[in-house]
## 1
Amino acid sequence: MATLQKSKTIIVSNRLPVRIVKEDDKLTFTPSEGGLATGLGSIYKQGDNIWLGWPGAVLSNKKEETKTENELKEQNMAPVFLTDEDIELYYEGFSNETLWPNFHYFNQFSEFKEEYWESYKKVNQKFADQILKNANPNDIIWIHDYQLLLLPAMIRAERPDISIGFFLHIPFPSYESFRLLPWRRELLVGMLGADFLGFHTYDDTRHFLSSVSRLAGVGNEHGNINYNNRQIMADALPMGIDYDKYAETAAAPETLEREVRYRTSIGTEKLILSIDRLDYSKGIPQRLRAFQKLLDRHPEYLEQVSMLMVVVPSRDQVGKYKELKEEIDLLVGRINGQYSRLSWTPIHYFYRSYPLHALSAFYRMAHVCLVSPMRDGMNLVCKEFIASKLDKKGVLVLSEMAGASKELSDALLVNPNNSEQMVEAIREALEMEESEQVQRMTVMQNTIKRYNIYSWVDLFMNRLEIVKKAQRSLTTKLLDDQSSQALNTTYKKSKKPLIFLDYDGTLKGFYGDPQAARPDPELYDIVNGLTKRAHVVIISGRDKETLGEWFKSSKVDLIGEHGVWLRAHKEEWHTITNLTDVWKASTREVLEGYVARTPGSFVEEKDYSLVWHYRKVETGLGELRTRELTSHLKYLASNQNLQVLEGDMVVEIKSTEINKGRAARNWMKRYEGADFIMAVGDDWTDEDTFKAMPKDAYTIKVGSSNSAAKFSVNGFEDVRALLKGMIG
């Protein structure tokens, strides 16, 4: 008997947490100190877990590749080797010239080149091939960031049941920005290969769900997406830092020694700290202009306040970045030239990277930390500043366009496009009383201490496991001959059987005209045959008049409009609860507006619900309109106790108090003591029925989608065959 392989976690990112440096014929391996590497170290260094990615250098021969593989294997890493062309077209090209500007709302910089896209696909496939070499069916794969958006679906195609998580470390843009990408649908479908998708903020999650709905034609319910018969979850999980690491570094002797040395060089003036990578999304020129305006408006700060600006080099040979560097150099030169004194420099500007102890000394020295990106996924600099403030003195001025602003509301929040507001915020920060500084800093430190990098990792893995459990709970077993036989035997032994049957898609196929789906002679024979020894309940979305007419000669109980109307055989129709239809008039106008714009669609009106049908609508247009309509209806329904349901080529809006499950429970009370219960249905409205059934009931889903039902059959013909077998 084969032994079950132990599951492992495979972390995948564009870059490994190590950098290879080639010097002559020698390869040296330098570990990364980034926040992600720190947080995920608790995972990839354990057991058989591995981190997979590009090692940071283009290797020229097989010997170098083999040496690299062996070296990295000892550190629980596996390389994906890229060529110079891959780096130019996939990384510098599509990732940073196409996706980066689009996701950060700088669409004027986006390059839509076919060769970039082809390379992006090719390299994502390289990553997929390497993962598949290392992955077993019960492994967990956690993919990171915008360079690998296609990867989840590529893995899913080969390993349908494997656990895949994805986290986006940059903002996800609004639909209006994302739709500009020529390959927008392919990117979304790629991401939907994951089971759980994490984003820094609720806004990012909302934008993703909106694009999925409007561009991929896939709806969601509270962040839960049903795609390709698989439940997917999208949620906001803001990334933290290793709080203790930064607090301990701030107290380290080397940091204190550096602080004394730097402070001696600079003098006693108050410091405004700015630390950024060279990028147009960081708003560095706007920051400099705001500082210039501050000095111009408030001459009392001359010789009293300086800005310490660190810009970390990045892609400065690329045109736009080169221009940005030149603009920053000119602004710094102009401000220093205009305001400098022999004993005072307004801006201490450094274009280089610094080690952690130096940065920690800067954080300790700074009175104000100015973090004002035009757009940023999270921004960890502001969190590092807070963790380093052991005396709790200091003020954070933070752009509301950074993801961190959603957590750090005790910072002074600014719109980086509003220079007047920025000037005033800097002035307020410089003048803030120490007691208020301590109060604000204490709250922010408690926040980032609690939501640190380790809790972020744990939370992500926990959410992924929750999704997989939900998927497994909805997995249905195809009703085979053995199960059918067991069902038949149990049914024939029973004394008081109770059977719930949906109608459309379950007992009868779908038709363009709903009235054309009336029962045929075979169906009447099946229903009448069952009623000879069982209580049969037809539980349908159909209106009560239609159901009453179609089954007037059958000894069946009827539940219409998904549970609005109930009628036992030979009794009158009634409702479970007091319902109102005052909402229908305004909603009907909305639906009729969509009918006017969508040839082939029509509205069906029931007593307490409205249904928009689009079975006859041109393929693609119907799905597009459905996404628009569903969003519109959910907005209308949010404060009216209404719910929006998507069925097979229909969208229905009705009271939240109505569902098939509630009606089914009512009927089970009526026939208390039933010793055989079966429920059969085909769409999401029937899930409420399945969930209402006792554990020993036979629940059967028609179709292959995930369901709370225990069994599934392929189509209504199989349902009829099953019911015939029960009669015979």
## 2
Amino acid sequence: MDTSYLDLLAKIYDKESKVVTEMINLEAILNLPKGTEHFVSDLHGEFHAFQHVLRNGSGNVKTKINDLLKDELSDDEINEFATLVYYPEEKLKLIKNEMENSQSLNQWYNKTIERMINLVLFASSKYTRTKVRKALPKQFDYITEELLYKTDELSNKKNYYHKIVERIISLRQVDKFIAGLAYTIQRLVVDHLHVVGDIYDRGPQPDKIMDTLINYHSVDIQWGNHDVLWIGAYSGSKVCLANLIRICARYDNLDIIEDVYGINLRPLLNLAEKYYDDNQAFRPKNNASEENIFENEQLQKTKIHQAITMIQFKLEMPIIKRRPDFNMSRRLVLENIDYEQKIITLYGEEYSLENDCFATVNPDQPDQLLEEEEQVMNKLLFAFQHSEKLARHMKFFMKKGSLYLKYNGNLLIHGCIPLNEDGTMKEMVIKDKSHSGRELLDIFESYLRYSFAHPERTDDLATDMVWYLWTGENSSLFGKKEMTTFERYFIKDKMAHVEEKNHYYYLRADEEVCREILKEFDLDPDQGRIINGHTPVLEISGENPIKANGKMIVIDGGFSKAYQSKTGIAGYTLLYNSFGMQLVAHNKFTSKEDVLKNGTDVLSVKRLVDREVERKKVMETNNGEKILQQISDLKHLMEYRYRIDQ
């Protein structure tokens, strides 16, 4: 081992007793039960639904409360107590308003603090005291620890503990104390959070989800196709930028760009109002029918939607032409239009065009941007790359994110592993070299990270590759032959809208295929599972999210309101603790107010995926591998010191 590293380690552990103590501590931790992992996917900006699922730990909080207090509290009282843990500040206000006098309130405070302390102790039973201390409310960590680990066999300290609670109440700190305990419980019931892609687009508040994740105690992210679109825009891809603005316009979410990230869309609006009129196909989807939306505002958004869509189609064409390896020549749609007859020829078929808005297209050179369009995109890109809040969110994406993750024996991936019809790994040629499987995903990620590190480059291979991840046939995030955006806007025949899925989505129910994928990523095919998002599970039609004899678990059940009519539910989440895995289906989240008033929760059915024969320990996890390496390093340090002393 490198002696310079051992010298550095020796400065931290400057005494033999410190080394021995740390080794004993680490080896003991290896034998604790593994912490609970919480998996969510395809949040699509639905902050309030996500926040509720995070606060209740997909039902894990209520499970702990039931286990601890089922003999003491009724079902209604358990629901009330659970709501207090989920939303302590808001619930406290409601409870205080209902109390008849201060004496009743003080009695309630005393009993509630006792239950909260017991619940913290119960939820922390598989953690070290050091880890629990880090989770305690900072303002009250000392007194909370005293109450947690109180011993009173001889009644010597009874008054001491009573006085602590009494003074918390008399000093008017009790609401803050209870709230701190509630957040400690939320933190303790979930050890680590996995977000399996697609935080952005469709829903209204992805920024609040990002802020929540930045402050979360332990999290990783597997990028989704919509996430990569935002990363690509920030990294310098104008075509990614055009795509995301188009999607925001389509789902009436332009406020995210203007109000949240401070990006001025006035130049785009000026361009849109100059060249475009009303167009039913480009009316915003989400809120157009709401009475409080002004017609003029909707018309402006409709014009912006058309303007940015045409810019997008133009920007795609040079990339397709300079990257023959992308095999996307079929998407040079603007070259296949008879602009006088309003007819397009696609795949040997002629289609009439409806809802056309080609005022800025030069039929002789359809990929040519107007000077005004060029200026608008330059201004928008500059604004995106200089938004402080967006920069913070994108940097967090890169720090915590990846295209796939191997974690505790499982493979986490948002989209797919591109496959051929026979289940073999599909190959893609990049710079005259063929790549497939894990190697292809590693190549994709290396290009994405390079593009992010060089935002000044807007048309190199790395930047083009980020766009390919959004829409390319061999992209692990897209997973379809081509994206039929143009057809959906302009062609009435719905057969032209169909997007042919990669064979992965038909083969992932095959256990042997899943086992081969796990082997490709050096995971145990007997023990490992693939945890997947991206494609909503149509539970309303009887689709099962648990596939391939449990080797494949799909957890996109429709957090996004745009999908819920198709899925029949409002999302799946997954819990994996030392006892095994449980899949949780969620009913539609109405509002926080409904939860506070009625104790309504959004859980429906919990399904057992698998139960461990023996409780899984820390030593069998990714964290266990790190601890074993730390123990090995400390052993080397002791041997190194012994040699020096000799």
## 3
Amino acid sequence: MNANDDRDESELEGALRKEDPSERRGADGKAAAAKGSGAREDAPAGDRAAAGEDDAEDAAADEDDDAEGADEAPAPRPPGPSMWDILRDSFFTFDRRTLGFTRILLGFFLIGDLLRRSWAWSDMFADIGVLPNHVNLWRPQGSGNFSLVNAFSTPGELWVLWVVIFATYVCLLIGWKTKLMQVLSLVFVTSMNGRVLLIENGGYVVHNLLLLWTCFLPLGDRFSLDALLASMKRSRERTAADLNDRTTLDDPLKPDSHITVLGPVLLIQIAAIYFFNVVHKTGPAWKNGTAIHYVLYVDRMVTPIVADIRDYAPNFLILFMTKMVISFEAAIPVCLLAPVGRAWARRLTMVMMNVLHIGFGMTFVLGPFAWALCVMSTLLFGREDWEIAARTMRRAHRARVVLFDPRSPGAVLACRVLKRMDRFGLLTFEASSSAAHGLSVRRPDGALAAGADALADIVAAIPLGPAVAWAIRLPGVRGAVTAAMAAAHRRSLGRALGAQIPERSEVAPPPAPLRLWGRKGLVALREIGVLVMFVGAVNQAAVELWVIKNRWKVPHPEPTRILAQKLRFLQGWFMFSPNPVMDDGTIVVDAVTVDGRHINPFTGEPPNFDLLNAKSFAYTQIWCDYYARIKLPANTAYRDAMKEYMYRYPERTGRPEDAIVSGDVYWVKDWNPKWGSTQSYGEEREKLFSFYNPKAQARAQAEPEQAPESPAN
């Protein structure tokens, strides 16, 4: 936020008051009233009227009209905001600073999600994995869903793709070519999520929707490399006066308020996630408050830490958490769509969403579900929140005067960059040919700082700078930074990078009319795209949600079906509904190796059928959902690929003796502890299928059995 915003707004309001004809009297009458009452020009209308009544005779003498003109009526109040103004500000407006902040969190979230997938990257996507792409293409899991990952088969190809995806996410994080990176990120995320539907859950759907809706938002207009480069191109400063002028920081065509039809669409989308989740929770465990108890004992889903402490959770805490989940899910839609108290309602919504999902994310392995919704909640930050943040974070004692050498291209370039990073207006620039290393600082007490000390002071003045400024002052780092600044100044690093000092200050002219019309056309296409996707989302919700499809038969035309399902923009919101999961289970493979050992190829350990005493299986979300889905009869077509994956077990271990000859695959399950108990019960073992590897058996028979070595004497 520009530190001069408040001053500029006050000056603007003062200018508007002076120019408002409703607040001006006749020239002579105004002078007479001022003489008679001493009232200020900017005094309230009621005070000016009283002053005019007290000096009616003096005013009448100076007026050309009759004496009745002395009884002047109070100036009319300016009109209040219209209904459209209220609706626009409440539902259709995003703050561009919010969009920039969301982009940064989105970049971190996407990088973290990619790292999460890395441990099973080849297992899920490669032709040596559980579902090779040729199997996926010949036996598609969904209704023709698109996945770019199907074009990559070998582990080498897929790791090259991984690097490309990682680079895209980093570019989105820093805001370079932001719109292109948004589109690419959308394609990559939907492609990964749609490649193996055996591991898809509600979190993947939220992940897809987050990338879809933010793709229509200008996430790169603030706090981005794009915004920095555009600002430096728009205004090329030469002198200290130019550097101290903050009026050219942001694009005048891109004010902080971004108005779009996506505003209400996004609010409806978030509200729908929670509203339908809560209305589908009709089971007795949710009504009597015991639902969280059962979920905490699903060992394939809970984290090991939760498994260690869940036995000690008192019953009143379980009841409280269950009611809190229901209450938060019911309250979030109300607060989101509340027409009054918007600022506080949105803040309450953000608190509830983050408390809810940070709790989910730390307790269960749900994939991107919890963290995607935490990122989505940041889109609710408003102008009022940024004003509070600026007042809270701005520290006047960090104000510094930056002395720069006007002869040094590097110093001028550094000051131009610092000007755009100084959103609190704490830095003042002053030309000084004697500035040490080309850049030094004068502190409020008049003391001068140079080298690393100066850089640390400068960094501490910019937003979030104090979090890293301390590192510059560390003994070893301090000397290295000072030496680097001295070397850069001596070698004129800025000139070597092409940062020539302009002969005179320049401000880019406004865009040509044709370019402006082109921008308006793109805006219109963007808004149409939002509405088209919203229609597809509403139709998908009508045919997918239980509370709707069980009552009405809603048609699903092919165009809207493609919009919703091609990239998996689904709308099925019934998490842990109507009852939470009350049983637990996992896949256990009892495979026999060529040397007669029994092993589970998925864990590398002997098969463990004891679920009753298990704490947590320590699965990732990927394997948790794969095991739960492959046991379903509808997915028997993918079990041959599962067998081939097990046969390749010695390739993963590098041990020929681990070759799998035969085995059985079981679904082992038990029932979660009853309310008031901590012990699971009712363990069952269901044999899904058996397998036999003739190639490994033939190799084992062809090799003569080695006689055991005699023990050494």
## 4
Amino acid sequence: MKLAKTIERRTRLYMDDFLSNYRVLYPDASQAQIQRLMDILAQVDKERPAALQQIDADREWKADWFQQPQHVGMMLYVDLFAGNLQGLIDRIDYFKELGITYLHLMPLLQPRSGPNDGGYAVANYREVNSRLGTMTQLRELATRLHEEGMMLVIDYVMNHTAREHQWAQAALQGDPFFQDFYLLFEDRTLPDAYEKTLPEVFPDFAPGNFTWQPEIQKWAWTTFYDFQLDLNYRNPNVFEAMLEEMLFLANVGVDVLRLDAVPFLWKNRGTNCQNQQEAIHILAAYRALVRMVAPGMLFKSEAIVAPDDIIRYLGSGGLEGKACEIGYNATMMNHLWHALASENTQLLRNTLSQLPPIPKEATWINYIRCHDDIGWGISDENAAAVGQSGRGTRNFCTDFYAGVLPQSYSEGYVFQRDRQTGEARTSGTAAALTGLQKALVEADSIKIDLAIKRLEVLNGVIFFMKGIPLIFSGDEVAQLNDYHYLLDPLKAGDNRWVHRPPMNWAKAARIHEAGTPEERVFSMHRRYIETRRENPALHGRSYDQIIIVDNDSLFVCERNYEGQKMLLVANLSRNPQHLSISGLPAEWQNGIYYNALRQQGLSFVNDHLLIGPYGVYWLKPALLLESSKTTSIELSMYIPAEYGEAIYVTGSLPELGNWDWSKGLAADPQDYPHWKVRFEVKCGQGFAWKWVRVRNGKVVMWAEEDREVMPV
């Protein structure tokens, strides 16, 4: 089959990348096998719709298109969010109102009936789950999203198929060609040898890694569940067949394939059969082939593994820019939750500082919650580097977010406790884990405010840092844990469903009612999204520097893209914190800034910033405080004084005498022993002040400590 000119050019461009990786996997592959792959590409190119070809052309020549700061994602279950695909199409305006450009639909390809691992047991890659709609509707959704400048993201399960898939059924009926599609064994000799070094993914649900198949009297490799048979990527026919399924979805209009369970693709005896180098070569070979025919489609690796391994899936060791373009920043996610619980950022900033840089062609997905549990991927080495026990730190996180520690505000749940180590993971919605659920039940307005501030600081970090921020559906309106899953026998044994609630549209309608938790949380998300869009410093190819400061409650990071700079200052503590300006890079030391989140100038004149409880600033450098507006400040003090004494207030502003009490303001004793003083300051002006007791023009007593006023 003759290739069109465009695909000919791309083939010349990417053929060496393809062959160098393919030959590692299949050194004995024939020219005929390689030609079959080229024929598949030619047929896909011939069938690719013109609209998708135009998208390919636009994206091919703007390689950083997905790294632009306006991109923000949402992930959701179609049925839980909108019932079906048509309902989802009808909700596109909701995504537009929030500012979503990247829509990740949780598994929606046809699964097996009965237990199906949340849709990850795929029985047919070319059909949509009939409960959710049709492939025609998925094409329509892709078209509508493209018209609105949005991306369609779906899951592509690479490691296994359902035993009901036609390949598996043929294998279970004895077809030797399809039996070689899977990892099957005549007896327990090899499975037992592998099991010596294999961990269990679901020790409670599915212990072991092999399942007896009575139809063929063989053992099948089943990493996850007994109804999911692992594919045999040592067989080049599997590589070819999965390429065809992948490219079928590309022509449907999918923009990003979330490649599920990629750490498990290749098995080597004597290892844990995860993160093998051959798995990276599989992805790189696919990446090169897809770029030949559909360069507008991206790969996202679902590799929730150790930090050094995560980087490999984005390209390292000569494969930079040749593997997946997007990866999950699970390291930041779980370390950020630890920082919130401990009110200490040492482990967070130390670990992130040690991460190897990702290729410039790649980016992160940053998130605080997703459909899955929180795995406490805190290494013993990183914990020890800040004087902590790895296991003790992981168990602290589990216990804190399960609400069993006295200081905890969380209402999460323990998931999959390891029988040998006692360690476990955590389930729960963001609102439940940050204390909003508990505060609403108690109707405590102070606790509600604090919980929303915790959501603000968590999101303030992930929306600022390099990558595409991702919202799990429902978190934008602060949905709580949902316990209806306990009534469903297919879900009741898996408490991850507690944080996968159906979208509560009555709750979502309150986003327009000022002051409601829903409105406050939704507006917070929208403010972050709008601010990202307006600031090129947050481009995905920025140079980033985590700044180690002398306050362990603070997380500080500078981003710099082509000379445009922004500074994140986040307080992970429930108490106000100070940051010494002199500890910042030189251009941040004049104490005058522009707060991009509030679109106002800020001024601090005491060699330090003051950050309120769970406060977050996105700062830009400024030369002076450009504000003509003023605001009224009232300071109140409780000071018993003797007859004839006066109270003066002095401080760091000219209005307060610049620490000369005689030029400060006299306080009003009308409500003695409560004293008050009122004056006007520029909006955005922070300052320090102190009271002074004076008699007959002489100082009797100074207050022991300075007090701070946050910029307004």
